[in-house]
């Protein structure tokens, strides 16, 4: 009965989530290819509307639509790459700590990474920015390093119950390898928690990267990145609102769409179980 009532409301929400997510993702993936065809090659007057520029120009006369199409790669790519790297490093660490039979190994694995937890994220990014100014790879590594301790702790906490449960014990007695128990059983029980966490962690990474770029700690000020564009045009919000509102709308749509979609997928998985 419960499933019957939730399906009609869940389907439009899923469609809305996919649409919200598809627009910024499509702009990030296809934008660099489309930009030369839809944006004028010549710069216009600063903060101008019209004159062949569909969304006007920014403070240096660059076409806002062209910036919008070229800026998604760094805005979303750096954040998604950082979260993927954080899970690539943190998830095996958390799983290994949860499944070990020796407390000293658990302590040895978890305590060093926890030293990074109280460090402010912008401080890490600013230190990296001094060493590798304007490097998207360096920013992605910094954001990944910030997220590894939290991911490891989350995965460890989510895996503890399954790792010490009767199913894992039975698999061990049957002679199953630890790798099969770790990734074949315990890892699967962690997936819904990880999916929910990714739904919130990626948007947080997007806004961390955007905030770093906004504060001048990240990419070059002339970069078309959405965060950089917002920072560069914020003083002209009332004169040329598209220069600020268009990239901001992309970031907001990506955040809401990803959260809605992850919620729908988790709800579907829970209902299926």
Automatic annotation (TrEMBL):
<feature type="transmembrane region" description="Helical">
    <location>
        <begin position="202"/>
        <end position="219"/>
    </location>
</feature>
<dbReference type="InterPro" id="IPR000515">
    <property type="entry name" value="MetI-like"/>
</dbReference>
<keyword id="KW-0813">Transport</keyword>
<dbReference type="Pfam" id="PF00528">
    <property type="entry name" value="BPD_transp_1"/>
</dbReference>
<keyword id="KW-0472">Membrane</keyword>
<dbReference type="InterPro" id="IPR050366">
    <property type="entry name" value="BP-dependent_transpt_permease"/>
</dbReference>
<comment type="similarity">
    <text>Belongs to the binding-protein-dependent transport system permease family.</text>
</comment>
<feature type="domain" description="ABC transmembrane type-1">
    <location>
        <begin position="72"/>
        <end position="262"/>
    </location>
</feature>
<keyword id="KW-0812">Transmembrane</keyword>
<feature type="transmembrane region" description="Helical">
    <location>
        <begin position="73"/>
        <end position="96"/>
    </location>
</feature>
<dbReference type="InterPro" id="IPR035906">
    <property type="entry name" value="MetI-like_sf"/>
</dbReference>
<protein>
    <submittedName>
        <fullName>Peptide/nickel transport system permease protein</fullName>
    </submittedName>
</protein>
<keyword id="KW-1003">Cell membrane</keyword>
<keyword id="KW-1133">Transmembrane helix</keyword>
<feature type="transmembrane region" description="Helical">
    <location>
        <begin position="239"/>
        <end position="261"/>
    </location>
</feature>
């Amino acid at each position: 009965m419960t499933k019957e009532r939730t399906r009609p409301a869940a389907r439009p929400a899923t469609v809305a989530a996919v649409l919200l997510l598809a627009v910024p993702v499509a702009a990030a993936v296809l934008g660099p290819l489309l930009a030369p065809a839809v944006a004028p090659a010549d710069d216009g007057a600063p903060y101008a509307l019209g004159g062949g520029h569909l969304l006007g120009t920014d403070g240096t006369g660059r076409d806002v639509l062209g910036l919008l199409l070229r800026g998604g790669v760094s805005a979303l790519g750096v954040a998604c790459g950082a979260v993927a790297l954080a899970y690539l490093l943190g998830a095996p660490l958390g799983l290994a700590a949860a499944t070990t039979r020796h407390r000293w190994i658990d302590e040895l694995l978890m305590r060093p990474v926890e030293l990074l937890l109280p460090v402010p994220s912008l401080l890490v990014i600013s230190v990296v920015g001094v060493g590798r100014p304007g490097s998207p790879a360096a920013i992605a590594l910094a954001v990944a390093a910030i997220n590894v301790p939290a991911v490891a702790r989350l995965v460890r906490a989510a895996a503890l119950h399954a790792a010490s449960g009767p199913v894992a014990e039975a698999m061990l007695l049957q002679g199953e390898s630890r790798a099969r128990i770790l990734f074949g059983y315990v890892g699967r029980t962690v997936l819904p928690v990880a999916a929910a966490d990714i739904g919130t962690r990626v948007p947080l990474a997007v806004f961390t990267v955007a905030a770093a770029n906004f504060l001048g700690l990240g990419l070059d000020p002339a970069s078309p990145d959405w965060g950089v564009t917002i920072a560069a045009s914020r003083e002209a919000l009332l004169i040329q609102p598209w220069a600020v509102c268009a990239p901001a709308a992309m970031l907001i749509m990506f955040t809401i769409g990803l959260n809605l979609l992850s919620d729908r997928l988790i709800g579907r998985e829970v209902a299926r179980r």
